[in-house]
Design goal:
Largest sheet: 5 strands, mixed
Strand content: 15-25%
Shape: globular
Radius of gyration: 22 Å
Number of helices: 12
Order of helices and strands: HHEHEHHHEEEEHEHEHEEHHEEEH
Oligomer: single chain
Number of strands: 13
């Protein structure tokens, strides 16, 4: 890593007429850090190549490679260098994909990150790439969220089987016949569906995106729901029958955002990753993660959170809490300044919690 930052400090990008602004920011950060009067103790760093950890799913690997491409584009010194090693890590959540178990019954959201965190803290990898919606709001000591990337479309998509026709009009669920079997492992999606259509039969579905699409195509389920962001990244956007407005189905907090974690002491990597941080995505992620944290819900609690940036520079933040059977659903929103999104999210979360029946968070 010192070698890499030496390249940034030493002027290897000066041959470019106009080095990218973000890369210049990384250069400036590295130079400023080395100019500090008070010495800092640097943790041992394995040097190059840098080891990148992620889940072993097809979507996680696509996201990781897109991230590495972006990092190389922003910092020209990385182009053509054999800098990165990719490490696909099988998590507990991935290992249970075929069992049909609900995530809430075997540990919840952290199941998709536990082994990756361990690899990071054990120095088997140097940074990790996550779908931010799968990352717990409180990270283990010694790990920080160093960077978030530009948000992909956060909406949910309805996948219809061969016996359904794409609906006309404003009702996205009009194509679902009475009593239709809908495959979903998300309590958030299931609760919102059942609130709108109590007649539906929601059944647990596990597996990766391709596997879920295949199950609907062969008639195992009448329909299913997936995040449009993942489908787009996999080149499967055309498989989405209906894209659901976030006002109709509130997305999961941070759906469509990729986040990069590193060890807290690796300031070198934090400087480098600062070059590709998307400030809009960071603002939305800050608000949505704060909302989720304030509600302190488990994977058994249907919670939605969605921050939308307004043209006037303000943020519209929507929060949703529901019963798993859809019999109760509370949705509220507020607007705030971008700089105040964290505090506003806590306020919104407190408001939602205060007006929910106790059993919602049981």
């Amino acid at each position: 890593m010192d070698f890499l930052l030496d390249q940034l400090d030493g002027g290897h990008t000066t041959s470019l007429a106009e080095p990218p602004e973000a890369c210049l920011r990384a250069q400036a950060a590295a130079t400023a850090r080395r100019a500090r009067v008070i010495p800092t103790v640097r943790p041992h760093h394995p040097g190059l190549p840098l080891r990148v950890g992620t889940r072993a799913s097809p979507l996680a690997l696509v996201q990781t490679r897109a991230f590495l491409t972006l990092l190389s584009q922003f910092c020209p010194v990385l182009r053509g260098m054999d800098v990165f090693q990719e490490h696909a890590i099988r998590t507990t959540g991935d290992a249970t994909q075929k069992t049909g178990e609900h995530l809430a019954d075997i540990g919840g959201k952290g199941l998709f990150s536990k082994e990756i965190h361990e690899a990071l803290l054990d120095r088997r990898i140097d940074f990790a790439v996550h779908s931010l919606k799968d990352l717990e709001t409180e990270l283990p000591p010694g790990i920080v969220l160093a960077c978030v990337l530009k948000r992909e479309d956060p909406r949910d998509a309805l996948i219809l089987g061969p016996d359904c026709e794409i609906p006309e009009g404003d009702d996205p669920y009009a194509a679902l016949p009475h009593g239709a079997v809908v495959g979903s492992s998300s309590v958030r999606r299931a609760a919102q569906l059942l609130h709108a259509r109590p007649d539906l039969n929601i059944q647990n579905i596990r597996g990766n995106v391709h596997g879920r699409l295949d199950k609907v195509k062969r008639g195992d389920y009448t329909a299913s729901l997936l995040a449009l962001a993942g489908m787009r990244r996999l080149g499967l956007e055309d498989e989405a029958s209906v894209v659901i407005d976030p006002e109709v189905m509130v997305p999961s907090a941070c759906q469509g955002i990729v986040g990069i974690t590193v060890r807290a002491g690796d300031t070198d990597l934090q400087d480098l990753l600062g070059a590709i941080e998307d400030v809009d995505a960071r603002c939305m992620a800050t608000g949505e993660r704060a909302l989720l944290g304030s509600l302190d819900g488990s994977c058994r609690t249907p919670i939605g959170g969605y921050a939308r940036l307004l043209p006037d520079g303000r943020v519209n933040l929507v929060g949703l809490v529901a019963r798993t059977d859809g019999s109760f659903l509370l949705k509220r929103s507020l607007e705030c300044l971008r700089t105040d999104v964290g505090r506003a999210a806590l306020e919104l979360g407190d408001s939602l919690r205060a007006d929910c029946p106790r059993d919602v968070f049981a």
